[in-house]
Specification:
This protein is α/β, with parallel strands linked by helices and 203 residues long. It has two domains: 12-75, Multidrug-efflux Transporter Regulator, Chain: A, Domain 2; 82-198, 3-Layer(aba) Sandwich (Rossmann fold), CATH 3.40.50. Helices cover 41% and strands 19% of the residues. The strands form three sheets. It has a five-stranded parallel β-sheet with strand order 7-6-8-9-10, with helices on both faces. The protein has a three-stranded antiparallel β-sheet with strand order 3-5-4. The longest helix has 14 residues, at 90-103. The chain is elongated and about 60 Å long.
């Protein structure tokens, strides 16, 4: 959860104190309201150069004309996130996949660490649900390989051993989110959504 220093009055651009629809230049708050996302998502997109922006002081500014063009060409095209589930228990793979697909996500599964790495090499997922204790390769070792492939990959470790040495090893390859098993579907879905929003991905 992000904490902001202030909240804008409804329909107001913080930089110029003008209604959004009349502003030629918008700040991060106004853009967040315009595209319907969190202000930190807007800033993250700006930092990565994924949205037309320029720095003014400590925050970003956006040309309304350029922004609307970007929205038409990019933002309104819904991206369905791809999630890779890695677990050596078949029933967990099945039930988790069913839950995520019913929610609208694209899903791939891997029953061991080797398959997980090969699947990620074929198509890098937006997020990985990673078991920690598996027969062929522990989740921490899988995570190390995934980090080498994509240092910014979103990873949620779902494990019955949250206080183990393996968990300590996995924490060497941040960022990771931890969910202890068993996890309720509503908590899992909420955590996935928050994690994806944190990197600027919305379903």
């Amino acid at each position: 959860m992000f904490t902001e220093e202030n909240t804008l009055p409804k329909g107001t651009d913080n930089a110029q104190n003008q209604p959004v629809e009349d502003s030629a230049v918008l700040d991060s708050y106004a853009v967040a309201k315009l595209v319907g996302t969190h202000v930190e998502t807007v800033r993250r997109l700006a930092r990565k150069g994924l949205i037309p922006a320029f720095k003014l002081g400590k925050d970003w500014r956006f040309s309304k004309k350029s922004l609307l063009r970007w929205v038409d060409n990019n933002y309104t095209k819904k991206h369905t996130p791809l999630i890779l589930i890695v677990d050596d228990e078949e029933n967990i793979l099945f039930t988790t996949r069913l839950c995520l697909e019913n929610y609208g996500y694209r899903v791939r599964t891997a029953a061991n660490g080797k398959d997980a790495i090969e699947t990620a090499q074929q198509k890098m997922p937006d997020l990985v649900l990673l078991d920690l204790v598996m027969s062929d390769m522990h989740g921490a070792d899988v995570l190390k390989h995934l980090r080498n492939m994509n240092p910014e990959l979103s990873v949620i470790i779902v494990t019955a051993y949250p206080n183990s040495e393996l968990m300590e090893k996995a924490l060497r390859y941040p960022p990771v989110t931890l969910l202890p098993k068993p996890v309720e579907s509503n908590i899992l879905l909420k955590t996935i959504k928050q994690t994806l929003l944190g990197v600027g991905i919305e379903l």
